[in-house]
Amino acid sequence: MSKRKALLSLGVDLFDGGFTPLLGAANDARAWAGLCKHRMGFTVRVLTHEDLRSGACVMAALRELLQPLGEGDLFGLFIATHGKSIDHGVSGHRDQAFLLPDASRRSLEAGYWGGAGVITLGQLEQEAARPGLQRFFIIDARRSPLEPAKAASRVGDELVGDELVAFEGETIYRDIALRRSAHGHDSSPLTLINSCPDRQRAVELRSHRRGIFSMVALEALRSELDAGRDVTLDESLLQAVGLGVEK
To answer: DSSP label at 90?
Structure first.
């Protein structure tokens, strides 16, 4: 029996709470889904801000894609939206939080990164854990959702500083990381790729309405496929992507 493969691709550009809109998150979500479907045989589901505003649910779509998958199969997740690293209270557990269209500005400014308008990496990782299932998550979280003006009033808060500021045209060279799941699901290994490390932001190319990381990564994957090589998310491929981003 051939390996079954599925991808959930999420891209959110527009937010109801007055957050700075993005330009290419939805375009990148469609591009990742297109490559995985047409060149690699994945079953795909794309969710954009339009889908989520029309009643679509990230977790429901995730469960639907996962339902037929089992041991030896492959599940992928791509996310492009506003995002931020967070700590879980007294536990000190480090996580990543991603904004959905109905995120509450008031809640985020108060330091509450829960609720229906936010989804976390921990939630997604736990939901997608299946015995023997191979998983990869590609996280292209674009920038912090809080405006630079808010940073001035948050002296002493961990959010203050470069992490908050998102200047147009700013270039961030990424330290792309390939690592195993931090949550230790040994029976369901996870390869996690972030477009940039903590306290940096990925960058969009305004002229193309795309994220630079996704543009370069997809081009690298197409080159591998055009050459007839099997695609492997290893250090050499990621180093090539990093060099392409810098250029």
So the answer is: G
